[in-house]
Design brief:
Keywords: Membrane, Signal, Transmembrane, Transmembrane helix. This protein is an all-alpha fold. It has a domain of 27 residues. The protein is built from two helices and no strands. The protein is flat, with a radius of gyration of 31 Å.
Length: 78
């Protein structure tokens, strides 16, 4: 390896190790934070119990179909 490539590898490794430490040690911008309104923004907060019931019903029907399937595969010996 050339000395320049060794230096590049060492610089890359050092920047990977130092970047998270520097980012966590950096102070917040004047002690303020960016705030956004999150109340009622997506209109998805509702009662989802019907979805859970539907999934339970589908699971029950699938279980009944699997149990009640007609598997009359009798072993046949020659």
């Amino acid at each position: 390896m050339h000395p320049i490539s060794r230096a590049a590898v060492a610089l890359t490794i050092a920047s990977i190790a130092i970047a998270p430490v520097a980012a966590s040690a950096a102070p917040a911008f004047d002690g303020t934070r960016a705030l956004s309104a999150t109340s009622d923004t997506n209109k998805l907060e509702g009662n989802s119990s019907w979805l859970i019931g539907l999934l339970g019903l589908l699971a029950g029907v699938a279980a009944i179909i699997i149990v009640a399937s007609n598997d009359d595969d009798a072993p046949v010996s020659p």
